[in-house]
Amino acid sequence: MIIDYWTRFGSSPLWVGISFAITMAMFTYLTAKIDWRMSVEGSHREYMASTIMKTLCLPLFGAFVFDVALDVFTQQWLGVLIDGYLAYTMHRDWQHIKDNDDWWKGRGTKLKKKLRSMFTSSSPATAGAGA
């Protein structure tokens, strides 16, 4: 049984909104990728483009993988091919820009230090109890 997914749900306001959001995120990602390719290494322009690319890469990868699953479910093989290729390029770009300097670099270490200092510091009420 072939499910006619697109005629049933394709024109719903929710699907139109999701499609618009993915399209705008992809356009922003591609613009940042062009900026990243044209910028000088170590410049502020490359730093900003890397930050935008790394921020949008994972959500777009998830959206394309979900879209591949929907296309497999509805047996639309051209959509599987196109969305699978886009998911592959997102993963390849993620691997390629992983080592670039951007806003996210070192955030995990800083967050870990902040949380450790919050939980290991003594509170004022217990500090005076031993004296």
Automatic annotation (TrEMBL):
<feature type="transmembrane region" description="Helical">
    <location>
        <begin position="12"/>
        <end position="30"/>
    </location>
</feature>
<feature type="transmembrane region" description="Helical">
    <location>
        <begin position="51"/>
        <end position="70"/>
    </location>
</feature>
<protein>
    <recommendedName>
        <fullName>Holin</fullName>
    </recommendedName>
</protein>
<keyword id="KW-0812">Transmembrane</keyword>
<keyword id="KW-1133">Transmembrane helix</keyword>
<keyword id="KW-0472">Membrane</keyword>
